[in-house]
Amino acid sequence: MKPMHKLGTPVPTHKAYVVRNYKDVSLEQRARALKETEYNMFSFPADLLNLDYLSDSGSTSMTDLQWSALIHGDESYGRNKGYYVLLDAFRDVFERGDNPKKAINLVLSGEDDVEKLMKELYLTSFEGGFINGGVHQLARPNTFICPQGRAAEHLLFSTLAEVLFEIDPNKKYCIPNNGHFDTTGANIRAVNIEPVNLFDKSIVLNHFPHEDMDKRNPFKGDMDVEGLEKLIQTRGVDSIPLILLTITNNSVAGQPVSMANIKAVHKVADKYEIPFFFDACRFAENAYFIKEFEEGYQDKSVRAIIQEMFSHVDGFTISLKKDGLANMGGLLAIRDKGVFSTKYSINGTQIGTRLKEKQIVTLGNDSYGALSGRDIMALAVGLHEVVKEPYLRSRITQTRYLAKKLAENNVPVVLPAGGHAVYIDMDRFLEGTCMKTEDFGGVGFSIELVKHYGIRSCELGPFAFEWDQRTEEQRKGILNLVRFAIPRNAYSLSDMDYTVAAVTELYKNKDQIPRVRISRGAELSLRHFQTGLVPEYK
Ligand SMILES: *Cc1c(COP(=O)(O)O)cnc(C)c1O
C-alpha cells in the first residue's frame, strides 16, 4: 500500500461549517454587467461570480478559532488587551521559533488572576528584537501596526525619505528588490526614490516539468545577488538606503526565495552596512517551500525556519491580509538598536519616534493602527493558525494541483507553481492566433472567463504594466501573465477542477478571444484599477 502522502491527491485538512451559496447568474447577465463596468476586472460585482481569483489578499476564510476570538475584541482607545496578545503573537512567530508562549490563551481562557496577567501580559518588558515591550516600546518605538501592507510601506518610505533629505537634499537614491510589488514600487517612486528589480526574466519562464513539482524546486524567486553587488558598485553605497527582499516573490509568479539567498543578500548588506528588510507578505508559505525543498531543512519545523529567516533582517513590512490568515492588517517592524535605527536616527531624533508620530497623525494610536479591536484578535489567532504545517501543506498542494492539472491539459502555466497563485504564460497561450502584444490578449481572456464561466482572474502583463506607455528598454521587463490567486481555505479541489475545465475550454477556443482596446484612462497610473476597456469581437 502507498504511504498516505503519496496518493497523488492531498490529505484533507479541514471542513466547512459555514456555507455561502452563489447566485444563479446567466451568461447574458454577466455579459451585461461586464459592459456596464467597462470590462474592468476590479469593477465587476463579486456577487455575480462563481470563483474569484482576483487576489488572495484579505479574501481568506478565517478559522473557527479566529471567529470565536472576535468576541474578545477590545475597542478601547489606549492599550486594548488585544494589543498585548498581538505583539506577543508577533514575537512568537517571528522570533521564538519552536518555543512560542501563546500568551493569547490567557485572554481566550478568561484568566482572572490579576497578578499573573500583569506579570505575563500587561507589564512584561522586551527589548532587542522587532517587538519591544513595556517601557522599551515607549522609549524606543519599533513596532507599528497598520491597516494593510501598503500603509506600512508608505509609513516606512515617506519617513525614510524625510531623513535622507535631511542628510543630503540633492542625492538620488534607489532601492533594490528581487521584485517590487506594484504598491511597493509606487510608494518608493512617490518619494522620488527609484525602485530597482533584480530578477532574471528568462529564469522565471524556464521550462520546468510538472511531474517534478513534488520533488524539487529551483527557487526562482531568489534575488540576483551578483546584480546587487554590481548595483552597489555602480551607484555607490550611499545611494542605497535599504535592500528589500520579497518572500515569496509575488511579482515573479509567486516564486519562493531560498534560505541560501536570504543569507547571501544578508552577507552583502552586512558588508556595506546597508539595512536589509523583508517584504514579508507570504513568510509562512515561503518557509514551507524551504522545509519541503531546501537541503538541511526537512527536519526543521516551519516555526524554526521562520525564526531563522527573520534572524537575517533588520526590519520588515508585511501585509497580514496574505499570510496573516486574516481579512485586514499590516505591520512595520524594525530591529531594536539595529543598523536601520542607528543609521537613520539623526539630528537628535530616533527614527522610531518619527515613525510613531507619523503613525499617530495618519493611522491612529500605536496600539491599534487603524484596526478595530476585533481585527486585532482575529490577527493574533491567525498568526498561530498560519504556521500550522497541515494547513500550509494543503495550501501549497492545492495551488500545485491547479497548476499540474492545467499543465496536463497543455495549458502553458509558469512552473513550478508558487505558493499563492498559478500564472498562465499568455504569450505561449496565444501562440497561433494573430494577437499582438498591444491587443492585450490576457485581458480578453479574463473577460471571456468571467462571461462564460463566472471565474475572475487578473491580467498582470502589458495592460497592467503599461506596455504602450513604456520605452523599448522598459518593455523587456514586462512578463505577459494572467494570475489566478487562490483565497486561503475558501475553495475545494472541485473548484480547481471547474477552473481547469473552463480554462482548457477557452484554450481550445483561443481564436475567439477578443482584442481589447483601452477606451478611457490609458495614461492613468496603476491603471488596471481604473481604466475603461472595450473588447473587439471578430
Ligand atoms: C499585497 C502585497 C503588498 C501590499 O499589501 P496590501 O495589504 O495589499 O496593502 C505588498 N507586497 C506584496 C508582495 C504583496 O503581495
From TrEMBL:
Signal peptide: none annotated. Its EC number is 4.1.99.1. Its cofactor is pyridoxal 5'-phosphate. It comes from the Archaea. InterPro entries: ArAA_b-elim_lyase/Thr_aldolase, PyrdxlP-dep_Trfase, PyrdxlP-dep_Trfase_major, PyrdxlP-dep_Trfase_small. One of its GO terms (molecular function) is tryptophanase activity. Residues 52-500 form the Aromatic amino acid beta-eliminating lyase/threonine aldolase domain. Keywords: Lyase, Pyridoxal phosphate. Belongs to the beta-eliminating lyase family. This is Tryptophanase.
